[in-house]
Specification:
Layout (H helix, E strand, L loop, with lengths): L8 H6 L5 E2 L9 H32 L2 E3 L3 E9 L3 E10 L2 E10 L10 E4 L2 E7 H5 L1 H38 L2 E2 L2 E6 L1 E5 L2 E10 L2 E9 L7 E4 L2 E8 L7 E2 L11 H13 L4
Antiparallel strand pairs: 1-8, 2-6, 3-4, 4-5, 6-7, 9-14, 10-11, 11-12, 13-14, 14-15
Length: about 270
Amino acid sequence: MQNNIQLSDKILKSFPSRELTLTPLKGDGGIIRTSLLTLVMLAFIAFFIYQIPNIAYDYRISQNAIPVDAYVDGSCKTRLLVITDCDVDLRYQGHSVSHSFTFLGFNPGDIEVLPLADANDPSKLTVDVAVDNVELRFISVIVLILLFIACIIIFIRSQIVTSQTKKALLSVGTKPLKLTAIPAKVVNVNRQFIATYKFDFNGKQKSKSYSGNKKTAPFSFERDGKSYIFVVYDPEQNIPYVLDLPLKRIQATPEEVQHLYSALTEEGII
């Protein structure tokens, strides 16, 4: 096992020596989670694509914009801290326009706007805030669309790795397994503990994550300022499988869990 650290004989001997069966866990991820995340990203992409016609509308007006004494009514809301959505109704010389636009910026109070019209077509109305931010709006939309597309690609690639490792896990069968610890990046996000680690799979380095709450978190510890996770592996396969705190991965008995925890405590690991 590459990049693993040497565990003491006391810890290794405290790990169950009987034949073990690996169990897929919810924290490994799965097609349902990937599908939901992908749908969320697609919804964001659709939302930002919907902004493009409004941006084009404001851009065309900006080429021949003139201030007009139009009636304006509307409101703006800030979402996700930096995305401001505005809806305005404008009336001028018998023309009525309902216009929506989105731009990046935090505006907690009222926004003062100046009505504008296309000098060549007074039926086309907008406000200066939409016109002044038209370039930023276009760039932001393109960047965010590309960002969400990149997220979808990452989710799909992650799901492929998850499916491959799950297939490998199920192929191990029931046999004695080895315990070791490998480097990982462990973060706490919304009470979810997420461990991300790298390993070799069919000659290629892969990255994978495991997540769990306080009771099902990845079994991790720190040494010399670095984070590590406990994993088990089949020496013939050499693929690491993250251990969870209650050791449900290997279906350990309460006595086996206590025996391992005692050894880790005596060694100052936990």
